[in-house]
């Protein structure tokens, strides 16, 4: 009987999605270590950290492929399959951004100008905080799934999403301040370096944006 029911309803996809989110968060979190080495011009250590980011991003990609292939197609799922797939893609973009950013910085051996280093490090850390909050929200997904995305658990997740919104606002404000600080000194820097610095700031900010979008995807799930 148990196997028959499993065939009808499918295995819960929540555990693998949570594992994927955890891997994506660890990938983003490694940027804190990576940029610590970059600021100190420790390029061998930065190379090692970058390798860890790549390994985690590859692991996230593999998990994503497995989840796509195994996600139940049953009509009895409490939420549409497409919404869970979209959530998965948003999570995955967080790891992609960490890989892309670290690759550009290491490939060019980019120096973070001393006058903006502290603001830059604070900006990186706050985006990682947003990723951590997104992971915290996803960790409630199993309870949500079991309760049909209703009740007290749904209320808890709504509060977590509200906190995500605030964190994303913080990252936006820090990005504005950081870009202004870079603008104030850009005439002293090689133009190509300035161009890449603006690009790196934007892509790091995407991590906070992806975290906020995870909150939006959870809100969509709560509406079903």
Topology of helices and strands:
Elements: H1 2-9, H2 14-39, H3 43-70, H4 81-108, H5 117-138, H6 141-146, H7 151-185, H8 191-222
Order of helices and strands: HHHHHHHH
Radius of gyration: 19 Å
Helical amount: over 70%
Overall strand count: 0
List unreliable stretches of 5+ residues.
1-10
Q: How would you characterize the largest beta sheet?
A: none
Q: What shape does the CA trace take?
A: globular
Defining key terms:
0% strand; mainly alpha; 224 residues
Can you put this structure into words, describing what you see?
This protein has 224 residues and is mainly alpha-helical. The chain has 8 helices and no strands. The protein has helices at 2-9, 14-39, 43-70, 81-108, 117-138, 141-146, 151-185, 191-222. The radius of gyration is 19 Å and the shape is globular. Mean pLDDT is 86; it is low at 1-10.
Please outline what is shown here.
The protein is an all-alpha fold and 224 residues long. It has eight helices and no strands.
């Amino acid at each position: 009987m148990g196997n028959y029911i499993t065939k009808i309803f499918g295995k819960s996809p929540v555990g693998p999605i949570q594992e994927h989110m955890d891997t994506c968060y660890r990938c983003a979190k490694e940027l804190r270590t990576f940029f610590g080495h970059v600021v100190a011009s420790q390029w061998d250590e930065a190379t090692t950290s970058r390798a860890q980011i790549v390994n985690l991003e590859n692991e996230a990609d593999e998990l994503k492929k497995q989840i796509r292939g195994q996600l139940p197609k049953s009509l009895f799922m409490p939420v549409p399959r497409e919404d869970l797939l979209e959530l998965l893609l948003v999570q995955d973009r967080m790891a992609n951004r960490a890989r892309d950013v670290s690759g550009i910085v290491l490939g060019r051996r980019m120096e973070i100008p001393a006058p903006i280093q502290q603001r830059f490090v604070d900006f990186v850390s706050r985006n990682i905080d947003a990723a951590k909050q997104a992971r915290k929200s996803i960790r409630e997904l199993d309870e949500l799934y079991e309760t049909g995305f209703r009740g007290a658990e749904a209320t808890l997740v709504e509060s977590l999403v509200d906190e995500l919104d605030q964190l994303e606002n913080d990252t936006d404000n820090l990005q504005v301040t950081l870009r202004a600080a870079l603008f104030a000194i850009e005439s002293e820097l090689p133009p190509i370096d300035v161009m890449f610095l603006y690009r790196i700031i934007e892509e790091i900010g995407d991590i906070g944006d992806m975290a906020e979008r995870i909150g939006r995807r959870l809100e969509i799930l709560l509406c079903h």
